[in-house]
Amino acid sequence: MNIFRLAGDMTHLISVLVLLLKIYATKSCSGISLKTQELYAMVFLARYLDLFSDFISLYNTVMKLVFIGSSLAIVWCMRYHRVVRRSYDRELDTFRYWILVGACFTLALVLHEKFSFQEVFWAFSIYLEAVAILPQLVLLQRSGNVDNLTGQYVFFLGAYRAFYILNWIYRYLTEPRFTRWISCVSGLVQTALYADFFYYYFISWKNNAKLQLPA
Amino acid sequence: VEFSHGKDEL
């Protein structure tokens, strides 16, 4: 564990907590893409198949349970909670993500570290996470004004993978046999997808204005 | 220590 990875995990945790706060405090999920939440639930379920088979550390196991539990809870809340579900932007959140799921799974069947059930699903989860934010970014552009908590949620979600890139550079420089091309390349693509959001987020922060994404 | 399939990250 290094400081970059810890910062990344904490930033990721903060993004989940901000989202839970937004839904719990405002009893609303307006501006949040259910499709991105469902993609993230798939990402965690596919990536943490080793949850019960490999014990790495208490921290690792607890964080995996937190990420799986929170993503499923948010999906359940947005689908079935009688108050929250009413504020879901159903007609704006129309990204056909099964194309993304199919493409990522096909890529994982071709490009993986080892051809085993767990490894293919792990590679699938890495590729899927890289594009999971797309429905959310599309929804933000369509829904115009973005409330603060939603903007902060997307910001922290993007920032965590940027910390992970620093972690991979650090591990590459300090650990003799560390190579993790699948994670690194996907992580770069993932962070790059946030580039324009980060730009508009910085502008809104600098001008102390509402976050506006161009349509 | 090398983990079962090197996945010690979240």
Automatic annotation (TrEMBL), chain A:
Transmembrane segments: 55-76, 97-115, 121-141, 153-173, 179-202
UniProt cross-references to InterPro entries, sorted A to Z: ER_ret_rcpt
Protein origin, superkingdom: Eukaryota
Main location: endoplasmic reticulum
GO CC annotations on file: cis-Golgi network; endoplasmic reticulum membrane
A Pfam family of this chain: ER_lumen_recept
Keywords: Endoplasmic reticulum, ER-Golgi transport, Membrane, Protein transport, Receptor, Transmembrane, Transmembrane helix, Transport
Source organism of the structure: Nicotiana attenuata
PROSITE patterns: ER_LUMEN_RECEPTOR_2
Alphabetized GO MF terms: ER retention sequence binding
Keyword DNA damage listed: no
Gene name of this polypeptide: ERD2A
Protein name: ER lumen protein-retaining receptor
Organism lineage string: Eukaryota, Viridiplantae, Streptophyta, Embryophyta, Tracheophyta
Record localization: Endoplasmic reticulum membrane
